[in-house]
Write a structure and sequence with these properties.
Strand content of chain B: under 5%
Oligomer: heterodimer
Number of strands of chain B: 2
Strand order of the largest sheet of chain B: 1-2
Shape of chain B: globular
Distance between the termini of chain A: 39 Å
Shape of chain A: globular
Helix content of chain B: over 70%
Order of helices and strands of chain A: HHEEHHHHHHHHHHHHHHHHH
Helix content of chain A: over 70%
Structural class of chain A: mainly alpha
Order of helices and strands of chain B: HHHEEHHHHHHHHHHHHHHHHHHHH
Radius of gyration of chain B: 22 Å
Number of strands of chain A: 2
Number of helices of chain A: 19
Largest sheet of chain B: 2 strands, antiparallel
Strand content of chain A: under 5%
Chain lengths: ~500, ~500
């Protein structure tokens, strides 16, 4: 047994668990779901651990090399996001297991969430363009199914999500077809080297299609409109999966295509830079005017996605490997911090909603003024999302800013600064509303969060504490995220 | 001393920070009703910290202690270190925190959400101690931003519309300043690597100033502008008068040791320990900073004149007084730096007394306006005496602490070849007298106003309970002692002289 077998195992384990969870009934579903989650988490973390210790992993299925066979691989990018999947997935499963109302009481939650996990793992470890398509579809369908658990009010948003996501997949598939037409292979590395060797290759069209398709899936403004209703109407234990994990899938696939297959393109990079800037600013402003807690958090995701897509313009034309590592590490730490903090925030919002029966901001004034575990978790998560120290969000911001200053990209400095202030503004509004109320005017009775099961109160705090503690030493994580850094296939 | 305690030297800053952090966490974990335990934890941690710092003082004056470091970001360490300046600031904060805690426990008696209050209160002192022990700019920034976050709930404590609004204004001023500071630190780190404080300036920064004075100047401007928000330098002072909606003990510590002092302490670090006075002078940034400080000194005093609300008058007075520190640092002469740094302590002692007293006037008699203060000394003689001592000190009457500061600042101005600054100091002293003397006069020599006469439900002499009164008396005594005993060893002045000499010697 060699460590590279961990790669297929990390996908097969959640698939198998999903099938089993779909077969059993009643409480056994929860047990199978939890067990499958834990096993999958161990495997995902093992992959990350091996990558951290020994560098990138590669496995060819059944011993066949591409282009005949299919390859799996894991590098630093896969490792940190597998780690994120393991942590967010496990936290959400533990949270959901304590009370079935967190997922709408439907036992479909367990097979669907495991399927979503399998899709995520597939996206992260595959080295093949078509398998990426399959894995993306699995993620999408599982995510749509999970949104549906939110009940009748979620049907509309779920349907819209489905249509948008399928359209995105189609555009991506077209891009893959064009790459196959140009190179005759679906293996990322082989296609990349063929395109890189051919100076006449016109990558503009497949890149544009992929950006459109994956931008839709990744909710990059102006392709974001489907996200807030879907994320806000999903049940408490589903929103964190959608926001913490699913939106990252489209981003990762674009990273693979951009750096390993098609190569960077200045025109498309400028376009992505514009969209990223618009996302941070417009998303932030929209988050400011929302009336429910979960919609604020959802629009905050739209804004933060802008930071992810900064990766493409900021790394363009940067030759110095140290600077490349700083910029990559910065963006990937922001992605990771966002996943953890956003999951914590959505879980906390879910707990509050379960306890108060609503998440309308005007209805929950001072609801949590007793300041318990859940609300402290909300505050710490907000610290990381704004990018204040000490948190992983700050570490990522620091690295990104350092890289941007050294490459004279002052627009990034301005954008990140403005984005930080905006995020502070839109997060302060719900937090101040929930946490503070006049001692004299007892408008709303405090919500008794203590009546909730301990898991619902403490899991958000545990995730938020993790974001803060990881910020205490981000050096190893930044180093892990750039293991086997794909520094560009074509010029 | 430290062998006695069995703690490795470089872990000491971590222990001191951890002490306050632990107190905060324990308080959050305790239930709201656990009043006794909470107070014990609070006071226990505060007393223990004062003791540790007192034991450390003689050792640190001889030699800087070794630093504690741990990797934080790629290429950047978290560095905690105790040098003389940090010890001075940490001692000030430890002592003032102890008295403010005593004051706050009684002040908030019977009001809701005390667990939240004292939890954040302890985190606030954690951040201040962290600021004083930070050994490089990034570590400083961590605690500086932490201070912003944990003071927000304290300012907003009452939860009224007005306090939420003021706290939000404060938060955005402070976060904005923090971001500007972050950009400055990122830029500087990108140019010369992580910068560790060293008395008299860092050689790498001097080299940068030599090779690229334009960039070095811009970075300086960003750093000082970011810090200037908390230091309430005009025109970045707008949040300070508004933040008075906070409970009295919060105002007291905000104005005396926590927020505004973190700002000027940061300016001191940047000027003395990153750039160094000589490099700053060569860059030509000292004169603009000096002018800005002078402007703030005069502007704050002029605005204070017009305030009828006592806390507002004190707040504008803070704007003015805190800029004495910047003024002294910007003079860059030994005497000027001495005067600036010693005023860091002196202003803290005097201003906290004034805010304690203002809180007592409001609590006991319901008097919040200057126009209502007439005859107050007849009813609250002890409180009025403490207030008078501190106010006279602020005006710079010898032998009060404020006089010592101003004397050294004036000396520093002449030494630095900027004698016109003496005129600014005199003008400011005059303005101080104009807004404090009438208060003192009516308090002692006028017939009682209606509010004073009818406050507290009867007409006899009335003082606050001892636990509220004692802190004000103690800080007033300390302010007096700091002036009278200025020449004694270990006095704030002697310590400031040592710091200034080390900085200028480089």
């Amino acid at each position: 047994v060699t460590p590279d077998l961990l790669l297929p195992a990390s996908v097969l384990a959640p698939v198998t668990a999903a099938c089993l969870a779909a077969l059993v009934r009643g409480r056994a579903g929860v047990v199978v779901g939890l067990a499958g989650t834990l096993l999958s988490a161990v495997l995902a973390l093992a992959v990350a651990g091996v990558v951290a210790a020994d560098g990138p992993l590669r496995h060819e299925l059944a011993g066949w090399s591409p282009p005949l066979g299919i390859a799996l691989r894991a590098d630093g990018l896969s490792a940190v996001l597998l780690g994120l999947t393991a942590v967010v997935g496990t936290a959400t499963a533990v949270y959901a297991a304590s009370r079935s109302t967190t997922y709408g009481g439907h036992r479909g939650f367990w097979p669907l969430s495991l399927l979503l996990w399998a899709g995520m793992a597939g996206v992260l470890v595959t080295a093949d363009l078509f398998n990426t398509y399959v894995a993306l579809e699995v993620v999408t369908l599982a995510a749509v199914g999970l949104v549906l658990l939110g009940g009748r009010k979620a049907w509309g948003p779920a349907l819209r999500y489905l249509l948008v996501a399928v359209l995105g997949s189609m555009l991506y598939l077209l891009a893959v077809a064009m790459v196959y037409g140009m190179t005759g292979t679906l293996d990322m590395a082989q296609a990349g080297s063929i395109i890189a060797a051919d100076p006449a290759a016109d990558t503009r069209w497949p890149l544009a299609l992929a950006v459109a398709g994956l931008g839709l899936k990744g909710a990059l403004l102006p392709l974001h409109a489907w996200l807030p209703p879907a994320h806000a109407s999903a049940p408490a234990a589903v929103s964190p999966l959608l926001s913490g994990l699913v939106v990252k899938a489209g981003f990762v696939v674009l990273v693979r295509l951009w750096f390993e297959v098609l190569g960077p393109d200045p025109g498309v990079a400028a376009l992505l830079g514009g969209a990223a800037t618009a996302a941070v600013v417009v998303g932030g402003v929209l988050a400011l005017v929302q009336r429910t807690l979960k919609r604020v958090v959802a629009y905050s995701t739209v804004a933060q996605i802008g930071y992810f897509f900064l990766l493409f313009p900021v790394t363009l034309g940067v030759e110095d490997p140290d600077l490349q590592r700083a910029l990559w590490g910065g963006v990937l730490l922001i992605v990771l911090a966002h996943g953890l903090a956003k999951a914590a925030l959505f879980l906390a919002a879910g707990s509050l909603q379960l306890a108060a029966g609503t998440d309308e901001l005007t209805e929950i004034v001072g609801a949590a003024r007793q300041l318990g575990s859940t609300t402290v978790g909300m505050m710490l998560a907000a610290v990381s999302l704004v990018g204040l120290p000490i948190s992983l969000g700050f570490s990522g911001k620091w690295l990104l800013l350092t890289g941007a200053v050294q490459t004279d990209q002052w627009w990034v400095v301005a954008l990140v600064t403005a984005g930080s202030l905006l995020s502070a503004a839109y997060l302060l509004r719900p937090l101040a509303t929930v946490l503070l109320a006049s001692d004299t005017t007892q408008e709303v009775a405090p919500v008794d969060l203590d009546a909730l099961p301990a898991t619902l109160r403490h899991v958000p705090l545990a995730l938020a504490l993790l974001v803060v503690l990881l910020g205490l030493n981000a050096e190893w994580l930044a180093a892990l995220s750039v293991v086997g850094l794909p520094t560009g296939g074509a010029p | 001393v430290t062998q006695l305690l069995g703690i490795p030297l470089q872990v000491l800053p971590l222990v001191l920070i951890g002490l306050s952090l632990l107190a905060g966490v324990v308080i959050f974990l305790l239930p709201e009703r656990a009043r006794g335990v909470r107070t014990t934890v609070n006071l226990g941690a505060a007393v223990l910290k004062v003791l540790l710092l007192v034991l450390l003082l003689p050792a640190v004056l001889q030699v800087d202690l070794p630093a504690w470091r741990s990797p934080l970001l790629p290429g950047v360490d978290l560095v905690l270190r105790i040098d003389t300046l940090s010890l001075l600031f940490a001692s000030l904060s430890a002592v003032l925190w102890l008295v403010t805690t005593v004051y706050a426990v009684t002040y908030l008696e019977g009001r809701p959400n005390r667990r939240r209050f004292f939890g954040f209160f302890s985190l606030c002192v954690t951040a201040t101690v962290g600021i004083s022990f930070a050994g490089n700019l990034v570590t400083f920034l961590l605690f500086y931003e932490m201070l912003t976050l944990v003071t927000y709930p304290l300012v907003a404590h009452y939860g009224t519309k007005a306090s939420l609004k003021a706290a939000r204004l404060y938060l955005f001023y402070a976060l904005g300043g923090g971001l500007v500071l972050l950009v400055g630190i990122v830029w500087l780190t990108s140019m010369v690597g992580p910068v560790e404080f060293s008395a008299g300036g860092v050689p790498a920064v001097a080299a940068l100033a030599d090779a690229n004075p334009g960039v070095a100047t811009w970075i300086f401007v960003l750093l000082v502008a970011g810090l200037g928000v908390k230091a309430a330098l005009v025109p970045l002072h707008g949040w300070l008068p508004r933040a008075m909606v906070a409970p009295a003990p919060v105002s007291a510590l905000l104005h005396a040791v926590a927020v505004v002092k973190a700002g000027v302490f940061g300016i001191a670090r940047v000027l003395e320990d990153v750039y160094g006075p000589r490099v700053a002078e060569e860059l030509g940034v000292l004169l603009p900073l000096l002018l800005l400080a002078c402007l703030t000194v005069v502007y704050g005093s002029v605005r204070a004149l017009a305030q009828d609300d006592l806390k507002a008058r004190l707040a504008y007075s803070t704007v003015s007084q805190v800029s004495y520190v910047t003024l002294g640092l910007a003079l860059a002469s030994t005497a000027g730096i001495t005067g600036g740094i010693v005023h860091l302590v002196h202003q803290g002692l005097m201003k906290i007394t004034l805010f304690f007293c203002a809180g007592l006037f409001a609590e006991v008699l319901g008097v919040t306006r200057v126009s209502q203060l007439a005859g107050l000394a007849r009813r609250m003689p002890v409180t009025a005496t403490a207030f008078t001592v501190a106010a006279l000190g602020m005006m710079g009457i010898p032998p009060m602490a404020g006089f010592v500061s101003k004397w050294w600042l004036g000396l520093g101005a002449v030494e630095a070849g900027q004698p016109w600054v003496v005129l600014v100091l005199l003008a400011s002293a005059l303005l101080n007298a104009l807004y404090f003397l009438p208060v003192i006069y009516v308090m002692w020599f006028r017939a009682p106003s209606q509010a004073v006469q009818e406050g507290a439900g009867h007409r006899g002499p009335v003082e606050a309970p001892p636990t509220l009164l004692a802190p004000a008396v103690v800080t007033a005594t300390l302010a007096l002692a700091a002036g009278v005993l200025a020449a004694a060893p270990f006095s704030p002045l002697s310590v400031s002289q040592i710091i200034a000499e080390r900085v200028v010697a480089r």
